[in-house]
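for the writeup, i need someone to sanity check this before i put it in the appendix. the sequnce is what the collaborator sent (i think, or maybe the updated version? ugh). structure was predicted straight from it, no edits. if anything looks off just tell me and ill rerun, i have time this weekend
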Amino acid sequence: MRPLDSEQIARIVDLYKDGNSLAEIHRTTGIGLSTVTKYVREAGLDSDRLRRRNLTKEEIQKIIQLHQEGCSLGEIAKITGRRPNTVRLHLAQAGLDGEQQRVAADQITRIIELHDEGLTNAEIAEATGHSRWTVSVQLRATGRDARRSDASKPRSGREETAS
């Protein structure tokens, strides 16, 4: 890969000074995030903005809730937009081991029953108190179609009409 020219470096610095985040500059310019970070640091700009935003109490509570619902570290990371290591760190700080908590067998049975009755994943999640993600994970683990939407939901009692 060729080094950046002085115009590209100046553009990175100007965009950063205008209040753009490192990720926004990366997306705008197509220049790698680590390269953008390097040139912002070399320009001696606001190092506090280079640090990642800390998780809020609500985000940490969401991580813990998802963990207790049976989501894996990877699933929690995807849902929250954080890295798996960040999830693991905050679970450890909360006294949890970071390994996936298992959904109780009776809850899995209930999820399957509701799925087989034709409920959508959102309806199953509401009925069982689990997230839609956990419902999908459990359905996939049992070989069922976890992508059922309202449109594909069987409708009992609905009569076909001839057009």
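The chain has three domains: 6-50, 57-93, 105-148. Confidence is low (pLDDT under 50) at residues 155-163.
thx in advance!!
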